[in-house]
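2-hydroxychromene-2-carboxylate isomerase, Conexibacter arvalis. C-alpha cells?
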Amino acid sequence: MSSLPLTQHPTAAPPKEARPSFFYDLGDAESWLAAERVNGALPVVPEWVPVDARRLGGAADDPLDRDAIERVARERGLQPLRWPATWPPASREALIAATYAKQTGRAVAFSLAAFRQALAGGRDLGDRDTVLLAGAAAELHPRALTQALERGAVAAALDDATAAAAAAGVRRVPAVRVDAEVFHGDAGVDRAARVLAGGRGGAGGGAQRADGGTDGSVA
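C-alpha cells:
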C-alpha cells in the first residue's frame, strides 16, 4: 500500500504591529521637547504626523510653563531657548509646510528645523520667511514650498490628518499612538517606548483610548 503524500500547509506569519505615530504641532513647545528625542527614545522610528492642535477637540491646555520647558531643555542639553516675541505663533502655514514636507519624505528634517528656528532662533513661525528658512534646511526648494502653501489640497491633507488623529483618540500634543493606545505629553514618549519594548508599564499612567483618559505633561 503506497503512502499518501503529505500536504504542506504554509505557516502564517505573525501579524506585524502597526508603526507608531508621533503627533505634534509646530506651535507647541512641549511638542518640540518630544520631537528632539522621539526617534531615539522609541525602538521603532515613528511616522511623524503634523496636526493642528487647535482642532483636536480636547480640553484646553493649562497655561504654558516656560520655566519647566526651559529646565527640561537644559537638562537634555538642547539649544538654549530664545522665545519668539509671539508665542504661541500663528502656526497654520508652518503646519501646511510640514504636511507638504511629509508628502516628500522630509517631515523630520523640516519639522526639527522649524522648531529650532522658532525656539532656538527666536523667529516667528507665522512669518513665511521663517517657514522658507526651515524648508531650505530640509532641502525643500523655496518655489516648490511656496506653491505648496498656496494649494488647497495640502491644507486639506493637514485637516484630514488632524481629524483622523482626533478620531484615533489624540486629544492634545505631543502624542504617540501605539496600536489603539495614545500616550500624551512629553512623558508619553517614555510610556510608549516601554509598551513597544514589550512592557505595559505605560498603560496606567499616560495612555488613553478614544473615550478619554490621562496624559503625561512636562511638569
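The radius of gyration is 20 Å.
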